[in-house]
Amino acid sequence: SLISFASLLGIVLLTSVIAVSIILSPKQLTNIANNEASRFLTCDFSLRKADLTFFKTFPKVGVDIHDLTLQNKIQGAPSDTLLNVDHCIAVVNIRELINNKNIIVKKLFLQNGYVNLFVDKNGKSNFDVIKVNAEDTSSSTFDYALDLQKVNIQNLNVSYVDLKSLLSANVKKVDLNVKGKWQDNTANGKV
pTM of the entire structure? Predict the structure, then answer.
């Protein structure tokens, strides 16, 4: 009957969630995230905790990240910190990750933090942090792409200083929804 099938499906799903949580503990996932990030980013990266989440991102699987920081030191910048976010959830395509070792981020949620964007007088920016040379990522076991169907930003303070163009701006408590794609050094997006 339908009730028996639904109960069986519920038990299988619950067992799967518990098994994956045991296999990928927050400590193990945090270590994986820190190791993989250094292969794709040119800046310093740190996070306090990464955990898998099913309930916040149902029916997809997400990575729930706490205290994410990106630092990129550039001479003359008002701060070494590019990004600091209290809470971040990245929804990934789990089939691509398991079957093809592709990291495809579908949704990204950022809450409570700040961004310091800086361009020096020669045009060098602190936000150009993704490695673009294939040799830089050759040691990685993963390919990656961003197919962001939804980026939700809540309570983010943004500072922008451009010494080359003599522009600056500070925006407080930004709430924003964006979508876009990034793959093979090409970015497209909509605000």
Answer: 0.73
